[in-house]
Amino acid sequence: PNLAEKTLKEISNDKKIKIGKIEDSFDPRIQSIVDNWPTAVDGNRATALGLPHPPTLKLIIEQYLEHFK
User: Fold this and answer.
1) Nearest to 19, CA basis, from 39, 31, 5, 30
2) What b-and-e string marks burial along 15-32, b requiring 16 or more CB atoms within 10 Å of the CB?
3) Model pTM?
């Protein structure tokens, strides 16, 4: 969460976008989903197949904001 919040604040400052207060709260339903995620992922096979590397968090947020101008 810290990386996401830091990145969102950085982008909003750069683009002069006012954002509301960011509040973290525990959601047991979401936590039960996250608890089943793998703890490590190996992307070597995807790379060997020629799939692109995932974009950075900053790029994902910037692209998201572009759709809501």
Assistant:
1) 5
2) eeeeeeeeeeeeeeeeee
3) 0.61
